[in-house]
Amino acid sequence: MAKIIAIATDDFEDSELISPKEALENVGHTVDVVEHTAKKIITGKHGTEVITTKGIDDAKLADYDALLIPGGFSPDKLRIDERYVNLTRAFLESDKPVFTICHGPQLFIQTGITDQLTLTAYQSVQPDLKYAGANVKDAQVVIDDEHQLISSRTPKDLPAFNAAIIKALAK
């Protein structure tokens, strides 16, 4: 089974971390929640508390099979920290899947490779991605096979998003 790293900090969109995490774990995958330090409680926009598994300095591409980036205000906070940007870029340039929803793709803008991506995001983030050169589509789930990138727009898309990420890891 796969080992997935989920990068998040305070003010993540609760359902966009919890729902995919539970879906992945329910089929036998492992999900590590990573933030600045290990064993820290991070809190979602709606009060959900999650304890981090590892700190970002201990998270390495080689240790994981896929990356999950939930939305909320978390991605905007993380994108000012080069450690998260570098890890995200490394995943996008690898042959490993990247799963993101809602505001999660904001993190891609700092990677310098947004112009190579096909994806979707929350309505207000879509123009930012277009200005950064991305091929943006407005659909429940967008799959960029070249970068093994699966993206969705909002919590309403979670059932389709979760099904797509489970299917991708089954290959």
UniProtKB/TrEMBL annotation:
Keywords: Glycosidase, Hydrolase, Protease. It comes from the Bacteria. Pfam families: DJ-1_PfpI (PF01965). One of its GO terms (biological process) is proteolysis. InterPro entries: C56_PfpI-like, Class_I_gatase-like, DJ-1/PfpI. Belongs to the peptidase C56 family. This is Cysteine protease YraA. The lineage of its organism: Bacteria, Bacillati, Bacillota, Bacilli, Lactobacillales.
